[in-house]
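Sanity check record (used in CI):
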Amino acid sequence: MEFTLLILIIFLALAFDYINGFHDAANSIATIVATKVLTPFQAVLWAAFFNFLAYWVFGFGVADTVAKTAKTSSLDLTVLLAGILAAIVWNLLTWWKGIPSSSSHTLIGGFAGAAIAHGFSGKVTDLEHAGWNIVSWYKYKEGDLLPSGVLIVICFIVLAPLVGMFISYCLSLWMMYSSRKAIGPKVFTVALMLLVFWFLSTVMIGYESIEKPRFESHFWSVVTEPHNIKWLLVAVIFYSLAIFNLIFSSYSAAKAESVLKKMQLLSSAAFSLGHGGNDSQKVMGIIAAAVAVYLNTTHQEVMTMPEWLRVVLPNEEEGIKSQMPEWIPLTCYTVIALGTLSGGWKIVKTMGSKITKVNAFEGVVAESAGALTLFSTEHFKIPVSTTHTITGSIIGVGVTKRISAVRWGVTVNLLWAWILTIPVSALMAALFYYLVNLIL
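Expected output for Phosphate transporter:
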């Protein structure tokens, strides 16, 4: 029975991953469709390809965070089943209504809500983890860049769109400033290029620090190290904008528009990479947590499991690193790419035109800001919402035109959907938990 439940949870987790793909397809293709750089079909192919490509770029930091949303040693598989069912129902409901809600937060909310219901059910024998304590609300370990826990995820409901908005606003001002035919903007851009080069040199790791080099060549091992790939992508995004800014003032309006439309291919690809890396890892985290719960409830050792299910959750105190069979990340990235191919056209319309009208200039800025935000939060292992991030970025470029350029009525409706996602998902998951326990 327990093994059947485990397989069902894995299947539903992958179904959620597929739904996540078409629910969130709008995040990376809305602006590129709105500016007519690509047709809708070309755009979903483009986004799906880079969603899948993220498999070779990102590690498992976000997956580990999701897997540790609740204390797996105190859970049973009905908790995970209820959490995924709630997440799937909420995602389908918001997709049907054309509301760009967060797939990430509905998964975290569902997982936490079912865990809390379990914590108060009387089934938890470890009183230290009973009730509200079953959820990992806040955890800080010395040496960590940021604390982890559900409260940090909730904080980033507000922070992610604000960070996206701030970055897109700053990028917009920088690019508008660079359109002037004066020496000042050029000097500022060159100084910024030097500053970013110094920053990247401090965060990228050298050959000596790579645990398992992929190539004998030092150069290719450093370039293809997942940690470095993220920062190299940041460099590509930033320096493409910087080089354009250096020659922006010499372009006519028509030439600048043409170049910006080509740059949108790069910025949307970068955002699709961030979306694939951020969102697929959440499903990996649920699958990893399910295996850990199964081992705990059946009192088995990980080595007794079939080789394709030998998952190890990280344990900093014991110095244990996460391990995952290759099929899990590969399947998760493949499924989200297939989901993206299906598209979610109702949400594309909201993201691409209802919030604010978007041209090529604004599309490049919004996608670049969104990608930079996602790469940064993935570095800190925070499972943020790609939906919130790109929405904030689109609002940021709208505000640079004028405050009234943003349709605040639509934005307020989106804000309510964001605020309600975690509590509604948690409540639904709790109800599913009690229903599942009545049936099983």
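Residues 77 and 293 are 6 Å apart (CA to CA). If this sentence no longer matches the regenerated tokens, the check is flagged for review.
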